[in-house]
User: Fold these one by one.
Assistant:
Number 1:
Amino acid sequence: MPQAQLQTEWSGGFTRGTWRYIRGSFAAAGQDSWTQAPAQSEDLFESLLNILPPSQGNLQRRWGYTLLNSTVSVNPTLSGVVPVSLYYDVQNNARRIILPIGTQMTALNEDGSTYLSPIFTAQAAPVRGASSRGYEYFASGNQADLLKWNGQQGGGVTNWGIVPPAVATVKVPAPGISESGTGTAWSGPTQIVSTVNYASATVYSSAPNKNSQFLFVTFFGYSLPTAAVINGIQIDLNAIVTPSGTSITPTIYAALTRGG
């Protein structure tokens, strides 16, 4: 049903006075400049300029109603075609125009005046941006430009996510190897760090040699810088099980001990 209605006053079967255009909602409003009345939909206007597409039943003025300030003092000056994005500052309920000026990513107010210059200095070009959940995300193809900005007027620039980890350090332990506990002793325990040979222990399905002794490998030689962040530690174990007689299912335990 059309939202637009026309009403007038009635008197003795004849209309009088001015017709009134009544509309309770602009949810279906739009523009139709081609169709002539009476074929035109009552919900469409012949001219509906500078209005955002109605989404909540009311009319709102289009963003960016004034021209950009051509006297903005930014060095270097803007020249050529550059990618531009619109950032919505949720905290301050404001919009910023994001564009590169030279190698400096710059935020302008809606009237073209400078809000922040630079947000950061890009390492490659062109830098493109996208706004999402209060952040402006940047990318240029250079990993150093994978940054996001929270709209602060000074600072507020951080990486997209966590800092990419450095290449993992591989450590082969020095021969600081010892045994303890009850059970079968290991044969060739120092070979546990070899990629060619191996240490071995024979265990049985019943006591007293149901388990092997504990084999400790120490002195890995790690030296951590002050305030270092450890993203993870990986231990690689290679084992070969050779069953003889009754089939058994061996279990191999490995534990990492701080200071060990």
Note: Residues 85-159 form one domain.
Number 2:
Amino acid sequence: MSKRILVVDDCPYVADASARLIAICGYETRAVYSGRDAMQQSLAFAPDMVLMDIGMPDLDGYETAARIRHEQGNANVLLVAVTCQAEDEDKKRAYESGFNLHVPKPVSLTTLCGLLALLNHEHCTQPTTAGPGW
């Protein structure tokens, strides 16, 4: 069974294009455009990884991550903040909210490769700067 990846961004073009690109690599993907939809799909779709924007209007990524992680009991899902908010304070807040990694936009193909390799517990041959320990 292929790994499942949920892509969350309030810009439908970004979410859909990212999900399609990842699907081409053999992953099962879904794209949603709000924090509330992400919470619903984290239960219905049971993703292995969630790539989520922080700055969303209805429920921001910080709150959505905290709810997915703590209220829904998804301790094992890999939560990745994919955002333009890349200051040290933003990263700290992301980790405190339950994100495992913080990746600044725009995401390079090298970084995406690293994220997918991490999901598969593989060694990525190209260096990334996605988060602590990379």
Note: The domain at 4-119 is CATH 3.40.50.2300 (Rossmann fold).
Number 3:
Amino acid sequence: MPGDPLAEVLRRLHPAPDRPDADLVRGYAAGRDAAAFEALVRRHGPTVFGVCRRVLRPGPDAEDAFQATFLVLARKAAAVRDPAAVGSWLYGVAHHVARRLRAANARRRAAEAAVVPPAPAPAAEWDDAAVVDDELARLPDRYRAPLLACGVEGRTIREAAAVLGWPAGTVATRLARGRALLARRLVRRGVVVPAALAALGPAAASAELIERAVRVGVPAGAVPASVLTLTNEVTRAMLLNKLKAVAAVLLAAGLGVAAVTTQPPAAAPAVQPPAPAKAGAPAPTRETVAGKKLIDRLLELKPQGGGQSLEDDTGAALRDLIKLGPAATPAVIAALDETTDPFLLRCLGYAARAIGDKRAVPALIRAFPKTCLPSASDYGNVSADPELFAFLQAHSHDKRCGTYYSFGRPITEFRSALKALTGTTHGELELNYASLSGSPRQRELQRE
């Protein structure tokens, strides 16, 4: 029966045979399997704790980084790209978490000392083990995973193959290539490879610390405030890095399309006189000017008193902006870059999604951090104008609303706009619970 003390003792004395990492990750992501999460903590905890201690030195900070790493896993298990290489993924997260906390500590010490430049880093920070951690964190998962399993955790190739769920030959090949790649990078940094690798052993975490990390995987588990704050910061940073990568891909694709579509016709008439040289930037189109005026109008009609609901006059301006189509995109992009107003950010996210022009994606990503600022709630709106209501309901992010149309918080509108324009999600749903506000309900959602 659940909670049976005897069953718990027997489980610990006679653990189930090792399941591949991929099975454990999928089991936890699909059904919040607490036993699967515990197995991941116990299997990879020593390696995670080792990198936290090397970056932060033994102490409470290393313990916070250790717990935060597994809280990130609890939140993002479904987003792990290669569940078989979750050990490598956890190593990368732990390294990122620890370095972020170390940088925050350095800024705090500098502020406390009223010194503009930060204090010099301890010499130990630049020892061989720290260099190896840096270079390991930069390796692709397919090479880092076998290096950690065999070179750091001390597994044989056959044991690593069982945990990773890869054929033994694949593990051996990737291990050899990973070692060669890591050795070349370390030699360039003046590190003696065998001695440096020997300093990377796992660190034994106390039973109490392991239990605390296991509890973060339980929906109702208590999470220390310091760990929760660190996790939220890291989650935001991971999301923004991913969104920047997506933006770079889309920009590259857009530039390629532009290069093709702007080529002159192959059979242009030779007798046509050359066009006169243009001085300065081209004049804005009529639609762009109209879009700018409508955006200004939205801000003028912003509800007073702290609410951010959409009234009919504001909804009509938003509808007219959307009806301009892609011609309004330059005005939307300019406003996304300029404004910090939560109400206008809602409207711009709504408009970008409804217009459907992918040119707005980089601006949405640049403006995404502003959506984490505190704002009013999501709204379900009604309208006295049936035609306006039908239009806004058809373009709202939630099509399930029958008697109202949805007008979400900035982060809600941006999430749905990015999904509509890129065809995928990037883990940004988690930012619903990582806002900069700190109400009791917000903290409860963050724990969940």
Note: The chain is about 60% helix and 0% strand.
